[in-house]
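Table 4 source record.
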Amino acid sequence: MWPRLRNREEDGPMKMIMAVIKPFKLDDVREALTALGVQGLTVTEVKGFGRQKGQTEIYRGAEYQVSFLSKVKIEVAVPSDLAEAVVEAISRSAVTGKIGDGKIFVLDIDRAVRIRTGETDAAAL
């Protein structure tokens, strides 16, 4: 049986922080988030481009254009009161100061459910 669904105000609002960063910065970001008490995150290898519009590379003496660059997408769900600290930690630990450092997006979460226990919202995080 599912536990009683609680009123959302009991748990407080939640945020999804999604960040696209350079792959070699992943360990730095994970360490920064762990220090904040973030207990879990999802990492996906992605390809894309932004303002840098890809890059030119040389392979066996031939120059070619790489349109989509390898990046890592991090997704972490947190209570709203932790969201700003998470954004700051990602910004600080992912920066190189060069073009292509990435982007961070903050989204509202309407509902979360832990499949194993049926816990909902902040308790499911």
